[in-house]
Amino acid sequence: MNIIEGLKKEHIVAGEDYNRWLVPPASIAIHLCIGSVYAWSIFNPALIKELGVVASASGDWSLSSVVWIFSVAIVFLGLSAAFAGKWLEQVGPRMVGFVAACCWGGGFLIGSVGITTHQLWLIYLGYGALGGCGLGLGYVSPVSTLIRWFPDRRGMATGMAIMGFGGGAMIGAPLKEFLLKLYYQAPTFLGPVADVPMTTENGVRFATVNGSPVEVVVASAADMAKAIMPGPEGVYVVGTGSTGAAATFFTLGILYTIVMIAASFSYRVPREGWLPKGWTPPQAGTAAKKMISSAHVHIDQALKTPQFWLLWVVLCANVTAGIGVIGVAKTMMTEIFGTTMPLIVNGGFAATYVLMISVFNMVGRFFWASTSDFLGRKNTYFVFFILGIILYMSIPYAAQQVSVHPAVVWLVMFYAATMIIFTMYGGGFATIPAYLADIFGTKYVGGIHGRLLTAWSTAGVLGPLAITQLRQHSLTNALHDLAGVINNETFVTAFGAGKEKLDELIATKTVTIGKLMEIAPAGTTDPTPSLYNTTMYTMAALLVVGLIANMMVRPVHEKHHMVHDEVEDPVM
């Protein structure tokens, strides 16, 4: 028997005395690896300063362009999960897990080449497309398996299966921070701004080094406070030094491939007809009360039911509201509170914030999925939407208050609101497979779940699109408003060009809110904390849509059920 043949499901059926609790660790290990995608925002500061290192250079990628790498990965997650649903049922979780390892690790390696050569499309191809396929395959591989190993606690089973995905950033964030710091190399420092003659051409700053003009960036005190390694503020040569992003990608690609392959070989599936000792399926009355069906719906028939599409909207709304925030979590925390409370919200605080998002995301997956075994899946989603609407509405209020009266209470309010939101974001992912099993039966739940994850793909586009476009609109307006209160002579002295070149200076990243605030009249309010207000109101509106869709979910009509002769025991 060759290696590929040994990966198939018929060769991994567990014996009678197999301990089902040996399966969750393999699932969690794979999900911890692919769940590091939630720490993507750790890479944002490095990628948007890949050439300038300490500050963004004219040729550096913008935040909006690198945020979409995360979005592409999520899109391919959903698409690969949808197309691999039937394949998963045929070949089993070990084969799927092995392929996932090759795709996810390989995506990092190709992304490393893209960073090294400064080819953004290679990062999209590697981390986004190939890595996204690894995400989708790795995500669905354990779900239906654990539901079948734990028919007595479906919610808890899916919580265990998906818990690691939410916790991936808990390990991934500090690991990425460590590697970036390890591989970081400071660029060439020319000296303080006052000591380095510079010219500005088409919005780009130049200095003369060894008789030749070279592009430079001016790093302010605020820029150096956010740098991976501290250094003096002043003028630095573009294209020297390294953010460490390329070497970090390469290291993670090798590490994740090894761990995921080892975990995939630990997968086992139960034999046909297996049930936990001493457990009997719930009584018909109890099952009906919690909308738990004893019938099965074929994977292709499920798409013809209104229940599938209502649950699609439920998941899409819940994910869109959270995924856009996760993609820029570190940036948002720094922008809202870094300018008003710089002694508290520094680079280390923001990194810890990303870590805590992972912790609460992971805890929420297990807590809410397990709670749904008692509340019911529909009622659990009611909690997500109603409470979520209130919490999203509270974030702009906290941002507005902190810009007027900087106080720790507003930071605590923001922190608490977002952490609760992320428990429910993760809980929505962990609860939806059990919701599907209740509605459509367990026979094809893995494949149906994979197809429903196209809602995640859609959310992966909608969330970042909303947060980047709305933020960019707010940012442009804020820059123009700030420039309007600054004396033109002061502006020219600071940037080497007049206000008529403002849009050009903004496009080349020469003008930023931080640099304008340094020359703005005393008493000028920093607009940075309010950049995300419109986005938060939009997310709250999306949750209203999800709430309505959840209210409309009913049991599947019996005309969609598989007849007795078509139904085999729900075993992989």
Report on the structure:
The chain is mainly alpha-helical and 572 residues long. The chain contains 23 helices and 5 strands. The chain has helices at 3-6, 23-34, 44-47, 63-91, 93-116, 120-140, 143-149, 154-183, 221-225, 245-264, 284-289, 299-302, 306-327, 329-337, 347-375, 377-404, 408-440, 445-452, 454-484, 488-495, 502-507, 513-519, 533-551, and strands at residues 189-191, 198-201, 204-209, 212-219, 234-237. Strands 1-5-4-3-2 form a 5-stranded antiparallel sheet. It starts with a helix and ends in a 21-residue tail after the last helix. The model has no long low-confidence stretch (mean pLDDT 85).
What is the CA–CA distance across the termini? 21 Å
The rough form would be described as: globular
- Kindly report the spatial arrangement of strands forming the biggest sheet: 1-5-4-3-2
Largest sheet: 5 strands, antiparallel
Write the layout of secondary structure elements.
Layout: H1 3-6, H2 23-34, H3 44-47, H4 63-91, H5 93-116, H6 120-140, H7 143-149, H8 154-183, E1 189-191, E2 198-201, E3 204-209, E4 212-219, H9 221-225, E5 234-237, H10 245-264, H11 284-289, H12 299-302, H13 306-327, H14 329-337, H15 347-375, H16 377-404, H17 408-440, H18 445-452, H19 454-484, H20 488-495, H21 502-507, H22 513-519, H23 533-551
Antiparallel strand pairs: 1-5, 2-3, 3-4, 4-5
Label this structure with key terms.
globular; 572 residues
Structure at a glance:
By secondary structure, this protein is mainly alpha-helical. Helix content is 64%, strand content 4%.
